Amino acid sequence: MKFSEMPYTRVDFPAVIAQAQEIIQRASSAKSGEEQFEIHQEFNKLMDHVRTLYTIAHIRRDGDVTNEFYDGEKSYYDEKLPELNAVTNEYKKVLFATPYRQYMEEKIGPVAFKSMELEMKSFDDSLIPLMQEENALASRYSKLIASAKIMWEGEELNLSLMRKYMRSQDRNTRKKAWDAFSGFFEENQAELDEIYDLMVKNRTKQAQMLGFENYIDMGYCRMNRNSYTKEDVQKLREQIKTVFVPLASRMHKNRQARLGVDALRYYDMGVYFPQGDPAPIGTPEEILESGRKMYTEMSDETRDFFNMMMENELFDVFGRKNKATGGYMTELPDYGVPFIFANFNGTSGDVDVITHECGHAFQGYLSGQDPIMEHADITMETAEIHSMSMEFFTDPWMKEFFGDREKDFLSMQLEDAIRFIPYGTMVDEFQHIVYETPELTPQERRREWSRLEKIYMPHLDYEEDPFFSKGGFWQKQQHIYNSPFYYIDYVLAQSCAFQYKVWMDEDYKEAWKSYLALCRLSASKFYPEMLRECGLKVPFEDGYFEEIVEKLEKKLHA
């Protein structure tokens, strides 16, 4: 079914909750493992229907943030979904304690039960008012960011549409665009500070109500970190500081020489060539058609996937004034299909949508064929491997998108992935500091960010920018506000994608075979076990980044 034709009705939460309670009653008195499983599938089907309707409203609201009807629906779900969390938590307690645990573990897997344990540990009915407030704050932040109206050469643009000019070939244009971008955040700094301060206090209170020392451990539970700890992540950060940051600094030194500038300023961020970074050729519609050609040639599975996406209008990727910023892949479980939301803006980021977001969607398409819903409940450090690795697996087709600048794009792609690792790690360390010391003032938080920038990104010069130079850059990072601790996942995934990059350059066919296996494993196995089964190394292992850096260094000078 085409997305535009999918019917929407507001979820009747009292009716859904009553239905769920009835299922819970039957689940608690199941007479066999088979009956327990049938009831379980029934409960999942009900929750899938709620998720489908909520997601349709969410996508349509993001498509036009001025649409009063869907904006109202978003507010409605922000308030009501925590109430549903209480019911799902109650159901999971019943399932977790089932006398048919062995049978159920064989059906849905041990990972599902570990995830249930973490979910129950981080939720209680008493948190519902705070969770509703947290949702409202997240929506307030998203709406503020989406409301940006920047006058640019007589045209009114949002933050997404400004990015093209922020990566302009002309350095003066870049500076002017970055200054306009920075100006929006400076102008709204008081509200940005207030929202985040309320969020930190809210999440800390939630954690303390459940007996956690602070929000960090609770945040790890909510991110479903079911096979590694904050201590593992800390060791990872130390490896990156000592081994990876020097590689990134050498790469930036080469970039500076290539650009022919005396120092890398903030408005040189994301710029790799003096003649301007490679931009995709063709219209947005033609970019999508090039994507169809690429995935048709790549494999039978990717061909079927992309055709299905196109035929059912499951892309909303063209930039519009009143559209929410950013991009994501989500799923519509009733229809067994993914959906991709993005904002094409004339930069290479448009192709990233066709590679990165399609990596997520392709995996979602494959897992949608699995009757066990829990297998689709992927942790984010795994989900991002699917997307970041797909960026590299599509490299042989980049001439389709960039013409005679194909090699420039491939060089930029690798360098940009290297550039990301220190930044992503810094975002994670910043959040650990914030939630470990929730009493920090907004000014103290900005000072901490500035201190971390000197460690992770020593090449960066903000000159006298009134917002960025005072440690405000993080306030543009939506994950820090709306998805706490969801960022180290990108770092873990990118490091695994680097393994695939090295592997595919040696043997594309075998690397692709491993990638397909990883996609199909989904969440049926724990993260380290799954990586090893697919022939990948686990990023927490000692010496992991030394080996990666050595191989990437060779590629940078190839």
What's a concise summary of this model?
The chain is mainly α. It has helices at residues 13-28, 33-63, 68-96, 101-108, 110-121, 128-146, 159-166, 171-187, 189-209, 215-222, 230-259, 284-298, 300-311, 349-367, 380-393, 398-402, 406-436, 442-456, 478-482, 488-521, 527-533, 544-556; strands at 150-152, 155-157, 315-318, 328-332, 337-344.
Span between termini:
47 Å
Q: Which sequence of SSEs, written as H and E, runs from N to C?
A: HHHHHHEEHHHHHHHEEEHHHHHHHHH
Give the neighbour order of strands across the main sheet.
3-5-4
Radius of gyration: 23 Å
Q: How would you characterize the largest beta sheet? A: 3 strands, mixed
Task: Determine the mean pLDDT.
Answer: 95
Structure classification: mainly alpha
SSE blueprint and pairings:
Layout: H1 13-28, H2 33-63, H3 68-96, H4 101-108, H5 110-121, H6 128-146, E1 150-152, E2 155-157, H7 159-166, H8 171-187, H9 189-209, H10 215-222, H11 230-259, H12 284-298, H13 300-311, E3 315-318, E4 328-332, E5 337-344, H14 349-367, H15 380-393, H16 398-402, H17 406-436, H18 442-456, H19 478-482, H20 488-521, H21 527-533, H22 544-556
Parallel strand pairs: 3-5
Antiparallel strand pairs: 1-2, 4-5
Helix pairs in contact: 1-2, 1-3, 2-3, 2-4, 3-5, 3-6, 6-9, 7-8, 9-10, 11-17, 11-22, 12-13, 12-14, 14-15, 15-20, 17-18, 17-20, 20-22
